[in-house]
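User: Show me a protein chain along with its predicted structure.
Assistant: Here is one chain, sequence first, then structure tokens.
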Amino acid sequence: MRSSFLSFFTALIVSAGFAVADAPPLSVTWVETGGSPLSLDAALAAAEKEGAWVRDFVAPFSLEPTPYPTEACFLTDGNALHLLVKAGEPSGELVAKVTERNGPAFRDDSIEFFIRANKDEASYLQVISNVIGAVQERAYAQGGFVTTRDWRGNTSAQTRKTTTGWEMLLSIPHASLKIDPDISRWYVQIARNRPARTGKVYETATWPAAPRGLQTPSTFGPIELPARFERARYGWTVTPGESFISRGKSGFELERKLKITNQTGRYRTIEVRSVAGEASGSLGFGLADGTTREVTSKVPLGKQSRVRGMVEHFIVQPDAPGETLAYSNAALDLDYSPARIVLDVPGYRSAIFESQKVSAVEARLLQQDLQTPIS
């Protein structure tokens, strides 16, 4: 993200051998929310009461302590992983220029968070938020060699300025984390970015220590999920296949093949919800534990002639409405013309053959509903 050299350098040293995997894990604090979203105030109250805080943030490479205090604590309510951060800023001055989602938020006063919640030691997810809650998300594979902006983690950020600095609550749904239900420890790295002020230099502080710089999975530190966290709920493998546009009874449809494996420990009745632009579709079926099923989702595209961004596939338990257990993303940038040409002259033909000679042709260009002429 910062430079191609950095990406290459980071990927090169993944297997170099500096690891903190055997370090004592940091406990993730359980917090009751009653099904409501966790607020920044509630997170602070829970963390101050029984949270496990880390305060030993140091500069990457040099491992020198930084003069600006940073504290962090992890919490979960069973539905999302929450990273709570308190950042000291004696000057009271904050830099926040990025306002759009997936903009370069790392250039502002910000928190970067890297996480691996499965056994793939060379792949990880990255979330960044600046002090006004502008979120940036990335997914990395092969130790950083492959990166994509197409991962959408549905991350939210709550932030505020305080008399001593600023606070942030970064919340990532567990369904976004590609969880392996067989492991109870996840591996993370936190970085605080402090842009240059007048007469100062850009500074970064990390936990755990990053002797070889950021985005080095072998130096991520372990966190331990509480025993009451139901990892099995997220035992889904969702593999997206090809996407294509077809013509259905009511017009054009976006179809996408999915291969879904249930590894949750029991039979599940599930629903797959698909979203493409402003349109959506769904299908439901049952799936036994340890089995795989291939399905095709369909979304009616209506009059949309341009669909940009993501197609999102959700798996939901009907007995817990709105509970997202897993979802997959795929890049989507469709540009199609939902229209046809109707020949008025010659009126006895619906097509003109290449070998046919016609002295005059009159036609109308219609939209997908086949009724409204396009001017």
